Amino acid sequence: MGLTKTQIFDTSQNELATIFKVLGHPGRIAILQYISTQSACICNDIVEEIGLAQPTISQHLKELKRIGLIEGEIEGNTVCYCIALDRWKEIQALLNSFFNEAKINCC
Known about the structure:
Elements: H1 11-23, H2 26-36, H3 45-50, H4 54-66, E1 70-75, E2 78-83, H5 85-101
Helix pairs in contact: 2-4
């Protein structure tokens, strides 16, 4: 069996690609921006605030949760979301490292 495309890249490259892919949708960026400006966990008002359908919001939340950027806490029939601060800082460090290592030597 041959190598998958991800196997020829190192862990950091694969992790950054996954993060960029998840953050590559403006709906997810809007969700993160909204959640990050709130002082408490956010439940049902994400749909009202962002303006996307509930199933679409749920899919975006699932992707953000998959890479660990948000955490969900079940309260009755709802799930309340907040930023996963440790992972947020970890991703920030990865992105800073990526951009700081780039040498700008364009024509």
